[in-house]
Amino acid sequence: FNFLRKFGSTVIHSIVIVLCLGLTYCNIYGAHNMSIANYNPFFKTFFLIIYYYLVINYLSAFLQAVFADPGRPPKNPEDNFTPRCQKCNLLKPVRTHHCSMCGKCCMKFDHHCPWVANCVGLKNYGYFLKFMGIGLVASTLSLVIIIVSIMMGLNCPECIPSIKHITRLITIVFTATSILCTVTMLVSHIPYVKYNQTTLESYDNDFEVRKAKRNGVNYEYPFDKGLKRNLEEIFGKKILLSWLVPFWVNKLDVDGMSYVHNKNTKL
Q1: What is the DSSP letter of 84?
Q2: Report for 7-21, 39-53, 81-95, 175-189: range of highest mean pLDDT
Q3: 107 and 73 in contact (C-beta within 8 Å)?
Q4: Residue 126 has pLDDT above 80, yes or no
Q5: How distant is the alpha carbon of residue 195 from its chain centre?
Q6: Which of 58, 118, 165, 247 could form a Cys-Cys staple with 134, CB 3.0–4.6 A?
Q7: CA dist., res. 108 & res. 177, Å (int)
Q8: Family per UniProt (predicted)?
Q9: Which of 135, 149, 141 is nearest to 37 (CA)?
Q10: Strand pairing category for 104-107 and 111-113
Q11: Distance CA 230, CA 250 (A)
Q12: What angle do CA 257, 113, 170 make, to 5 degrees?
């Protein structure tokens, strides 16, 4: 059963990755071949540079989120670290959780994401956020390009009219849906980034926030170090370059074995 589960998980993940890449291609085709290609030379060049830069940056973040180590605990630690996971026997430092999909523990585990076929944890959370953020910008630009081309009556001379309209309609629906889902996901992660918490940790923190509010006190998030330092824990010290440069590798100072935490909180 474990073999079938792992095999089924691999198949599903492969299908999802191919689907993401296929939909990305459809989005590019709809924006470029059916819209940008019909702009005047100046705007065509302008939009092509921006659009394909975003696409390359988006795909780089996607591939990094898929293939980067999410933060597996070391198998042979230098110090005598005693806590271990009862399921996978890997080290289990603070903020580490066992992923039932991967069958392994992940440091600063946020969730297992089917869209990147990987755990989202300490070492690839920044790539995951960049994947969503750049994808949102690229999808929005694509939608604007297509809608503007329709309003301006720009037609694709090589396209059959009926197929052209159907393709544009499908692209608009897909892109708008993608934007809505991405915005929802990104908004949900704002408090996680702001207070340096994971999705799992937010459940306990939300309970503690309500409890503190009833007692008339302010709740201090255990690992909140301020917005700038929280962002550096996700993207490294070169936050801007991490977002702007395709395939940029985030260099994190934290090793996942221990974290700076507020002294007034209980861990």
Answers
A1: B
A2: 175-189
A3: yes
A4: yes
A5: 18
A6: 58
A7: 30
A8: Belongs to the DHHC palmitoyltransferase family.
A9: 149
A10: unpaired
A11: 14
A12: 155
Per-residue confidence (pLDDT) for residue 27, from 0 to 100: 64
Q: Which residue has the higher pLDDT, 127 or 115?
A: 127
**Pick from 228, 229, 222: which is nearest to 197 by CA?**
222
Max intra-chain CA distance, the chain? 69
Rounded to 10 deg, the angle between the 227-235 and 125-151 helix axes is 90
- Rounded to whole angstroms, how far apart are CA atoms 56 and 260? 35
Report the interhelical angle of 227-235 vs 161-194 (nearest 10°): 120
Q: Where are the alpha helices (H) located in the chain, listed in sequence order?
A: 2-32, 41-67, 125-151, 161-194, 199-214, 227-235, 239-244
Catalytic residue among 20, 99, 106, 113: 113
pLDDT tens digits for 244-263? Answer: 999 999 999 999 988 988 76
Which of 135-144, 172-181, 255-264 bottoms out in mean pLDDT, i.e. has the lowest? 255-264
Q: How far apart (Å, rounded) are the C-alpha atoms in residues 131 and 116?
A: 10
Amino acid at 243: W
* 156 labelled catalytic: no
- pLDDT, one tens digit per residue, over 206-245 is 999 999 999 999 898 999 999 999 999 999 999 999 999 9
Amino acid residing at 65: A
